[in-house]
Amino acid sequence: MATAGAIVTTIGTIFLFLGSLGVFRFPDVYNRLQGGTKCTTLGAFLTVVGVGMMGPGWFVKALLIAVFILLTNPVSSHALGRAGRKSGVSLWERSVVDRGGDFDSSSGESR
Amino acid sequence: MSLLLPVLLGIIGAAILLCLLRMVRGPTTVDRAVAVDTTATVTTALLVLLGFAFERYVYLDVALVYALLTFIGSVAIARYLEGGL
After folding, report:
1. Do A23 and B34 touch (CB under 8 A)?
2. Which pLDDT tens digit goes with each residue over A16-43?
3. What is the rounded CA–CA span in Å between residue B66 and residue A58?
4. Residue A48 and residue B57: Cβ atoms within 8 Å?
5. ipTM associated with this complex
6. How many angstroms separate the CA atoms of A81 and B77, rounded?
7. Å from B7 to nearest chain A CA?
8. What percent of chain A lies above the pLDDT cut of 90?
9. How many angstroms away from the CA of B20 is the closest CA of chain A?
10. Each residue of A12-28: b (16+ CB within 10 Å) or e?
11. Rounded to an integer, what distance in angstroms lies between the CA atom of residue B45 and that of residue B48?
12. Ramachandran bin of B35, using left for φ above 0, alpha for ψ from -120 to 50, beta for the remaining angles
């Protein structure tokens, strides 16, 4: 069980590093949000669950933290992307498609 | 096993350093908010891993409260940036 927990923690740590590398390297707010949220959610989930598998008696509270991260991280990322869209941050110049072009700021709903 | 934990902590430290560089360089305010949000999630995992490395069970409570507070902070910053606060 300790070996499995160490493997899961290592995989999660690599995911955390790759997500932060995406935040540093990607060219656009929305690309950075994509890399920095999805990758980091999986990485934090795997790291916390792996630590819960390694430590005896730690599993329930570690799983509580992991489920909390899994629930709240997409919500904050959605709020940040919506804030970027509504505050008028433009897309990267080589982006192909923009379906949110006629964002109606009065009602707060896209088409 | 005794060598694994410092290596993992070093990798997480490098990840936080990359987020801090984006926080310094980010052209817009939303970039910096995204970097802060990513740093908060990475720091939650770092607290749990530090609690295991130091064998302190109470660090899990610290990580839980930190995750809760940074979630509220990110949502509040996002609401402020879109002009609804």
Report:
1. yes
2. 999 999 999 999 899 999 988 999 999 9
3. 18
4. no
5. 0.91
6. 12
7. 9
8. 59
9. 9
10. bbbbbbbbbbbbbebeb
11. 5
12. alpha
Q: Is B21 exposed, middle or buried (0-12, 13-18, 19+ CB in 10 A)?
A: middle
- Cβ atoms within 10 Å, residue A60: 9
Q: What is the pTM of this model?
A: 0.88
Q: Using one digit for the tens of pLDDT, what is the confidence trace for B31-73?
A: 999 999 999 999 999 999 999 999 989 999 999 999 999 999 9
Q: Say how many CB pairs under 8 Å bridge A and B.
A: 152
Cβ <8 Å between B38 and A64:
no
Q: Which of B33, B51, B71 is the closest to A72 by Cβ?
A: B71
- Residue A105 · residue A86 · CB < 8 Å: yes
